[in-house]
Structure formats: C-alpha cells, structure tokens
Structure to design on (158 residues):
C-alpha cells in the first residue's frame, strides 16, 4: 500500500505489544503511530515508543476517541507536548458535564489543545458530582469502552 499511495499511513489503534509495531516503524511502513496509550502500558511505554519512532521519522497520533477519559486525553496531550515527533492528536470535545466532573480537562481553542497549569496531568475529579452519573459496566454492547484487549489482541471484558 505504501508504494502505491502518497496518503500518510497511520496504524496502531488496537496494538498491545511491541511485536505489532517494531517492524512497521523500523521499515518505515507507516507515517503515524496511533496507539491507545493505556493498552500499551501507559505513559512511560508510550514515551519510549515515541522516542523509538522519532529515529525513523514516524510521528505520533495517539488514539483519542470519545471513550477515552479526560485523564487519558490529558496524558495524550502531555505526551504530544514532550515529543519532537508529535504529528496530530485525535480529540472528541468533551461535554460540559464531563468538564464539570473532571475540572482541568484540556481545552480546545482555535484548533489548538491546551493543558492547564496544575501539577501532574492537571485533572481532578468532583466525586460528589460524579456520583450523580453512575457508570453501567453491565452492557454487553460491542465496541463499548469496557472492552479491553489481552496481549494477543483478543477482546476481553471486565
């Protein structure tokens, strides 16, 4: 596909271990790594992956759909800001309720995403307000946020 098109290629949304991305990056078969940072082990493994990609001119595009929490989006943003090979960031635009429950959620202004100046990832949680919105983990709907993946990529549910 790479040799037949000039369209940049992004992969990694379902990747869970290095064996899935090492050959794609080292052979420059992709332009963007698009992993979900919680499924590859968190901030430290994601930062290491970004550094590895940098040596092969592969840019980051951390996975950030609507089922990623404000904490996850803040982690994505902090990785973006600390990576020389940042490419693009997927963003879903949280609702006003989400912003109230999670004060410190990154803000989108004129096409740019901004962190706050609080320590760490800068996100807090209003537990009283959150209690008004209980989470129903009993749903067995495919592709819900409760879906997790095992090391071999198989779907697993809590």
């Amino acid at each position: 596909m790479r040799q037949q098109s000039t369209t940049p290629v992004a992969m990694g949304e379902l990747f869970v271990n290095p064996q899935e991305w090492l050959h794609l990056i080292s052979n420059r078969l992709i332009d963007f790594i698009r992993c979900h940072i919680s499924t590859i082990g968190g901030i430290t493994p994601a930062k290491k992956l970004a550094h590895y990609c940098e040596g092969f001119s592969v840019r980051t595009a951390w996975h950030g759909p609507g089922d990623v929490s404000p904490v996850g989006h803040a982690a994505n943003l902090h990785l973006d800001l600390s990576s020389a090979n940042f490419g693009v960031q997927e963003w879903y635009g949280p609702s006003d309720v989400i912003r109230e429950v999670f004060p410190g959620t990154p803000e989108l202004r004129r096409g740019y995403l901004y962190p706050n100046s609080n320590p760490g990832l800068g996100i807090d949680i209003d537990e009283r307000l959150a209690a008004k919105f209980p989470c129903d983990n009993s749903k067995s709907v495919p592709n819900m946020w409760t879906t997790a993946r095992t090391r071999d990529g198989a779907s697993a549910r809590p």
In short: The chain has five helices and seven strands. The chain has a mean pLDDT of 88. The chain has one domain: 2-133.
